[in-house]
Amino acid sequence: MVPLSWWPDRTVYHSSSVPSSLTEPALPRVERPTQSPTSRINSAKSQQRHGKSRPLRIANQTVPLVTHHRRTRTKEIPMSMQHRWPSALLASSLLWGVTAPLATWAWRAPPTPDVEAFDPERVGRTETDRRRNATLLAGYEYDKYVAAITGYNGQDRQQVVFWNRQRAVRTRVGPRGNYKCGMTLGPDGTLLLATCKNNNLDDPMKKRFDIWVYASTDNGESWELIGETPLSGKEPSLTTLSDGSVVLSAQKGYFGPGTKYKEEINLARSTDGGRTWRKSTLAGSDYPRNMIIEKNGSLLFVRAAEFDWTRANEGSPHFQLCRSGDGGRTWSFSEGVIKWDAKRPFGEVSAILLRDGRLLAAIRSLQRGAPRKDMHGYGITLLTESNDNGQTWSNPRAMSHTAEVHTYLTELVDGRILATYSNYHLPFGVYAIVSNDGGRTWDRDHPIQLALSALNQVGWPVTLQLADGSLLTGYALTAYLKQPPDMFVTETVRWRLP
């Protein structure tokens, strides 16, 4: 197997070298060093100081590409012992890529006003934990670092993380420049993936994002470009109807400098497996994360009634239900009543129809007290549900920490619900958590890291369950449209729940 690139503590292999079966119980044997990582670093530094040129070498490790995190609480270390710990802990954390803080003590100074302004809802299981977390952020310069809009917002730093890695199959879809994606599974088992390609044109009369469609017949191990759609825009989604036809939607707009926002979404329908498309449009600026096939065969998607990222009052305190009984040709609209604070608008709705008849929706909103202008650094995912086909909805409840957004919901064949989302805080990546009780509670102590980036925010995940029970997640390796095209990558990863 030939390594393609390095992550901080792992070698990434091309998918063709990964076994096609995801059920192999055996993992590659990793040779353990006779010295601890910290000892080897200190030894190497000592040799360099004494004129010896022997470089520090760390053996390659063949490791899985999906990481399961198990979080545990930390205890305060007595002040008398602290002088023995920091250097060793810092060196080992840098070497092994541990992102959770290993220093478990905190100074007793109260949080500064600037920290409270950036963390309007302090995180922690106890008041002591919340005070310690706020204190750890004192002096953090949010306008200085690559994670300027997020930093460590919303993270409980009074914990450490245990990693348990698993085999996975990760592939790139098409060339660099491909951006966010949507996926669907056809009746014959063929996977379709629509991705918006950033051509980065400055001319506002030309399309900035073209939408391309790829197909896979081997559960996502390889992808073939099958055609370009007549649509432009971003945030595409795909839905397979009962007759085998496919509906595609995308947020309309050029999204270039000085251009006007389009208050409509693009729709298209294909009857030949995604090769050709018939285009239409739908009024309204908010776009569906996914569409629902109701029991009577109708199409349904739920969106914010008013939504515009370019306005100061973006978002909406109401739902709009969009239904079509003819495969997306014509639509009817109704309002879903939801009790919500109009000062905390929401958008990016991902709704699913559960087997028990409930509609469950994840929405992106703002932390209480956060500036209205920034739903990135202060964004949060909320959950709400309806028992009457969307006419009324429960009071939204928090599901995520700050800056954990782009949530996509999937009901699994065993009844569990999977939520896949993006981290807009450190560490950047795509994560998943599971609910065992219909979305009422979530196992946040065991998040699953599906993708990781040290430089770019990773965004817009979508997850499907395949016929063999495995899961396929597609995502964009950067979440921001203003990056140059060579920084955009669409990838998929096939994995299994533990």
Describe this structure in words.
- The chain folds into two domains: 71 residues, no CATH class; 327 residues, Neuraminidase (6 Propeller).
- 8% of the residues lie in helices and 37% in strands.
- The chain has four helices and 29 strands.
- The strands form seven sheets. A six-stranded antiparallel β-sheet has the order 4-3-26-25-24-23, with no helix packed on it. A five-stranded mixed β-sheet has the order 14-15-16-17-21, with no helix packed on it.
- The protein is globular.
- The two termini are 25 Å apart.
Sum up the structure in keywords:
8% helix, 2 domains, 498 residues, five-stranded mixed sheet, Neuraminidase, globular, disordered N terminus, 29 strands, single chain, six-stranded antiparallel sheet
- What count of helical segments does DSSP give? 4
Global Rg: 24 Å
Biggest sheet strand line-up? 4-3-26-25-24-23
Given this structure, which CATH class of the largest domain is correct? Mainly Beta
Query: Structural class, please?
Result: mainly beta
Mean pLDDT value: 73
Biggest pleated sheet = 6 strands, antiparallel
- The CATH architecture of the largest domain can be named as 6 Propeller
Strand content: 35-45%
Shape: globular
What helical percentage do the residues reach? under 10%
- Terminal residue distance: 25 Å
User: What are the segments in which pLDDT stays under 50 over at least 5 consecutive residues?
Assistant: 1-64, 76-120, 308-315
The overall number of domains is 2
Task: Kindly identify the CATH topology of the largest domain.
Answer: Neuraminidase
- What's the total count of β strands? 29
